[in-house]
Amino acid sequence: MDYVKAFIIGGIICLLAQILMDNTKLMPGRVMVILVCTGVILGAVGLYEPFLNYAGAGASVPLSGFGYNLWKGVKESIDSDGFLGLFRGGFKMAAVGTSAALIFSYIASLIFQPKMPKN
Q: What is the pTM of this model?
């Protein structure tokens, strides 16, 4: 049942992002920034943690989960390191996910040999 709930919640988040792209003139990059900022804001007001506990991977995998992860890292680092934690926390919390994305995309580029599109 957890898989179904995560699939439905994650699908709803993606559906909302797709509706935003289809019905506005926002480019995909801006929609991604909106999702990250939404995760940060919901984390700051204390709403994302209960949502994450309910939805599981359906809330942690989309970009809003990445924003929440950044917020959580900054908050924890400020609590332990003070003002310096404002700059250190987000990097420390998101380093594993960012590193994995870079490493796996590099491996995929070696396997599939991407080519630049011709205009």
A: 0.75
